[in-house]
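Table 4 source record.
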Amino acid sequence: MDEIKKWQYICKAEKIVKVLNQKHFKALYVETPEEAKIKLLDMIEEGASVAMGGSTTLNEMGIVDILRNGNYKFFDRYQKLPFYPDIVEIHRKSLTADYLITGTNAITKNGELVNTDCTGNRVAAMIFGPKNVIIVAGINKIVDSIDDAFKRIKDIAPMNSKRIKHETPCTETGYCMDCDCKKRICNFTTIIHNGIKFEGRIKIIIVADKLGY
């Protein structure tokens, strides 16, 4: 990567980490996805139960295979099973996990986490349930405001819908159609304003690079 560009990414990462810590999250930054993977796994003790929220960032890092092959109790939502009732039941059990690992759709410069879900399992678990939440996010997730977060989510929705092979109108047009169909992925939106209620529960690893969508 260009040294000047990397310098700017590091500046952005350092700044948002400071804001997130002021908002009572437990945040840190790393320079590469490989460093993020090491930090992430260092946070999880062997034998712990672990769930995942849908995340392109984590998939790119190979976290699913690590959890499947490691000494963890993994609530594996990526198994080839019928969505209902099997995968839905895994989602329910995931709310009791020691750790939820996930990404985030957007982080505002004021330190809010903004997310939109299809099923709601990810956003529900981020708010309450698992004892610990570990979020990994690239600097491309940083936006100016909540309104910009909503715009970002709409912009990336067609890519996420196409990624999971949902036949929604946006996978044809390339932009949000605010559709009314069963396969719609934009059903539940949450804003986590701060981490003060359970201080330190939500841990955020900011990567000084662009990751995921």
